[in-house]
Amino acid sequence: MATVYLHIGLPKTGTTAIQHFLWDNTPVLGKNGICYPDFDVRYPHVMFLRNAHFLIASCKKADDSDQLVTDENYTRFMDQIAELGTHYDRIFLSEEALWSAKRNQHAFWEKIRTDFEKRGLSLCIIVYLRRQDTFVQSLYRQKVKARLTDLPFNDFLSVSMKSYPLDYYSYLKRLADALGKENLIIRVYEKEQYHGKEHDLFSDFLDIFGLSVGDGFTIGQAALNLPLDNSKHELRRLLNKASDPRAGNTILTQSFRDIRSYAANGENGYGDVSFFRPGEQAAYLESFAESNSRVAREFLGREDGVLFRETADKILPEYQVDNDALLKDTILLYARSILHLEEECRALRQELQNVRSELRDVRENVVLYRLKRKLRHVSGSDEPNTDADTDADADTDADAEDIS
């Protein structure tokens, strides 16, 4: 029986890096009986490597009950996975948004487990856990950068993260009840706890499949998803209040990208800071202490009850905005926006000039046609018009009137 390995996050635990790494090494995976499929449907704003997104997009809660309904893509992709299971021992699917997707969780996991079993496939869930205090800060940076929030950190924490599943024990217990504890693969997103000779995220992930980087895998140059430095983070957050995240590649967006590229080529301010107020970070982590300890004992078999080895004892400077840097970035943003507007105006002026030239040519041709007709009429050289000629003349006259 083939096994589907479904990687469900958490976000901000290197999921994108893992997806790119495995995709780049598809031939090596194939030699080891692992398939990372690419389905033929693309979802807006979702990278194709998140190939389990159809489980979110195609399996939804019915309006009037707790029942789940699916669309044709769900069935079609499930059948395709079953077909792949006749050629591969293991099929890898990934979608970090599954961790926080809002739905009847128990019914959802029961359904996909049952649907896979009907097709002769077993299901394993891969989860990476990150310490909650560092997770929420990383997620906050990403949300600001992606133009998805304009809230200050403490408001983000109390509003946007209020219902986010950060009680890891409760979440994993629901998964275990629906799928079986033995079908959960839980890893910790900490360098000290990575498996494999290289002790990095890639070696740790390959270890799940009994593989190592030395089995022919190559690590390409990763496209680093660097956070915004402090002044640009604040500028982006303030701009988020005025811009529509659905607006796409606007002049403002392009201008902000420009000033970010200046920083990328020069000195960066990506120093470690804490968005928590002094003393609040330890208290926040402590609120999850019991949950984390139960995960360590019950799911990882650790008698000491320690889930995260890295401690929160390191005191980071509190996040502060450098007003001089913020002013500099604001001026640069304004300047780049004006330059982009000038470039667009120049292009529009050229386009308008071309249209005017074309209209002038049309008018001259129409006037010349009319003059020729009048000269033929005066000289008596007009031949009787056929019906087709009469219709054509009438159309030309009408066009000339419209233009003039």
Structure description:
- It contains 15 helices and 7 strands.
- The protein is an alpha/beta fold and 404 residues long.
- A hairpin with a 6-residue loop joins strand 3 and strand 4 (68-70).
- It is globular.
- The N and C termini lie far apart (77 Å).
Please specify the SSE layout and strand pairing.
Layout: E1 2-7, H1 15-24, H2 26-31, E2 34-35, H3 54-57, E3 59-61, E4 68-70, H4 72-84, E5 90-94, H5 105-118, E6 121-129, H6 132-145, H7 153-159, H8 168-179, E7 184-188, H9 201-208, H10 230-242, H11 251-264, H12 280-286, H13 289-298, H14 323-379, H15 387-403
Parallel strand pairs: 1-5, 1-6, 2-5, 6-7
Antiparallel strand pairs: 3-4
Helix pairs in contact: 5-8, 8-13, 10-14, 11-14, 14-15
